[in-house]
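Summary for the steering committee. The consortium agreed at its last meeting that each partner would contribute one worked example illustrating the joint modelling workflow. Our contribution is presented below. We chose a case with several input lines so that the handling of multiple components could be demonstrated. No manual editing was applied between input and output; the record is shown as generated.
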Amino acid sequence: MQNLTITNWISIRSKEITKNGERLFQAQEDSFGKIMKEAYRHFKVGYPKFFKMDKLSKLGFLSAELLVRDLELPYPAEKMGVILQNGHTTLDTDTKHWESIADKDNYFPSPAVFVYTLPNVMIGEICIRQGWQGENTCYQLPHFDAQQLEQTVSVLFAEKKVDCCLAGWVDQNAEEYSAYVVLVEKNKDISKDNSSFISQNLEQLFK
Amino acid sequence: MEALEQKLKQQIIEALNLEDIEPEDIESDAPLFGDGLGLDSIDALELIVLLEKHYGIKVEDPKEGKKIFESINTMAAYIKEHGKA
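What follows is the complete predicted structure of the assembly.
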């Protein structure tokens, strides 16, 4: 029996960023793009490449950035995993790319848009920023599936593929967005701030 | 020429999403890649698209691109010589 623990968690939805149950940020802006920019400036992220990312990557990047900020994670880079779920994959960016090539007389596909037409690129942005090199995958599912997440991440720990894993749901399409992300570590004490990494607790955290 | 340089700076900022950078922050003779604006390979492709989209210039030879995109000045000079707009 593995002793896997949710040691930190974050959610970004409805203009709010909440970490470990505490509201960190309430956006003044209304549009998703402006909310991301407002949060980036508020938290003084200082990573100009952020602005070049597509919307989904911005959401995933900020979730990871704020989740692990100020944490000491004493794990080798190759043992840091990222397992995410997502409902719309990169539909928003796919559409943007399609629009740029739909008109044969005005055919200017943007390389900077095209490179974001895969949800795994979001994970790539997270890993580049954090220096993580472990197992990672983004699953496309109709909705957040706590059981699937628990099973997938547990297998990675059981097979000693990861020592620590960022896991959750990051989804965006047009102005709809939601991110629920946890940090899973092994053999940590269960306290009022930590809870067992089981699907019921995931559902409870992000209900 | 100066008007073209200004226009280019604005177009580059927009095309490459260079938030927090104003046209006046870009020196016309400073390198665009490396120590300059810190652009990457995807940005280089975007600059090629920018030339074609706004100035009707097709850069076929990647080696040529290295010289063209050295700085705002070199881009402007190339557009002057080869551009349709």
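Chain B has a mean pLDDT of 89. Chain B is about 55% helix and 0% strand.
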